[in-house]
Amino acid sequence: MLRAHWLTIVLLTLVGGALAYAWALSQPQVYTASGSAVLTAGVAEDLETAELGDRYAKSLVSSYLDVARSQKVGEYAADELGITVSAGALTSRVSVSSPSDSATLRFSATGPTPEAARDLVSAWIAGTAAVVADIETGGSSSAESVVRLEVLDEPGLPTSPSSPDIQRAVVLGILAGLVVGVGVAFVRGALDRRLRRREDVERDFDLPVLGTVPLVRQLSRSGSTFGGETPVMKEALRALRTNFQFIDIDRPPRVIVVTSSLMGDGKSTMAYMLADVLAALGKDVILVDADLRRPRLAQYLGLEGSLGLTDVLVGRVDPLDVLQDYGPTGHLSILTAGQVPPNPSELVASDAMKTLLYSFPEDTVVLVDTPPLIPVTDAAVLAARTDGALVVARAGRTTVDVLDRALASLDRVDGHPLGVILNGVTLKGIDKAAYAREYAEPEEMQSGGESWLSRMRARLAGIGEPAAEVVEEADLDEPGAAEGDDAAVAADGDDVAVATADGDDEAPLDGPVEAHDREDDDAPVGSTLADEVDIDDEIDAEDEWVADGDDAVSDALDDELLAEDGWDDDDRETDASRRSEQPAPANSEA
What we know:
By secondary structure, the chain is of the alpha/beta class. Helices cover 37% and strands 16% of the residues. The chain has 19 helices and 15 strands.
């Protein structure tokens, strides 16, 4: 509590000292002067008489101490000074004391000036002596008093004010402010419901904290370098990425909603940062801006945002036409929100939205930036139709009650919260040890080569990887071939297809030609085909080549076909030798 509220304690301590200093300066200055006098009991003729007189004077001190504090002495002092102040007012400014076992009386008085304080002490000693004499003589002017009050120390002129004591006042003010500050810290700590650290979330919620990200600024146009300038930030993002990958080992989530409780928690920032670190590890990632109320990714990342998700959902454009490659990794693509629609809730909850999100390959992670959970229902509805949601909480701002409301909105629609990302954590005290500043930062970004979007376009177009390569040109005029000029065979990995070149008599096909895996077929490859395929139908070599259903023409002809064509083993060996020596053309059409 003290560490969390140290600033409050310091401020209140400084305020206490400042207030005490201001109060001291506002008080009038008071000067104090002091003097002393001694009671004597006549003149001693011998030692025994002197001792008796001294004991007698000491016995009278306590009585004359009260006399010295009386208003009668005050009236005498007022007359002596020639002032109109009442005797009671003067008495409050004078103090008289006597040390134990002594006949001495000590006088001190205060005044607005050094001279006023000194004159008041002198007048008070003189007044006390006069009253003592009157008491001892019974008021007779002719009688001589045996007990007298003799001046011992004349009052001096004070050089500095005795009040206010600025130093003492400031010290007391600082101590008072410190006590108040500590009290306020404990009260606030006991009543504070804000989430500040990982332990605060785990204490109140049965959810894992996937990452605690230090306090950073909002997303800027720095792109993929954003948030990776310091070792602390890099280590925090690595920890977030690692924990994300271990959410579910058996069934890792593919489509994840990234949302928050309220605006300003940093959900868009966290969605981009998570996508960026996953792409840096070589993982294909698509970041979709589904916040159709206040889209921000296009602005933050400096991307074209006129066309995007809304245009795809209404069927206006193809997803590959609006996906934009981002960053140097070649593994991150952004789908911006596009135009803000009048019905965002209906769009994100549509079947078209779900179909789009799951239309990407299974090895691609799709992160969906959505609106906050509490103000609108978009994120909750979308979370129920995906693999789960990551909820971003702002440290020092999101309270336990607010996060509880957000998670309750997910629970009402059977949405699955995957975990919490605590954003904006201040690294103070023991929190600094959570990140390894001292370790070297290895370069882990995988970049270069063809971008993900290019590979995706090729994959969805059905071309495959790598491109088809012609491995053979066959002369169809040879024995056993259909009439025509030449035929080209294209091979793609483990698959094959047959195509005829331009000629007078192209080999007609009665059905589609489909490739078969080599592991499933065992027919040897002849001069016309580059792979192993099956033949389920009878083939008439003299008239045409026939493919029926899923089977294609092959060299694996039966004995009757070989006999009709006049092929023998020598013909096969000669043709295979010619094909192996002939270089394959660079490209072909499947």
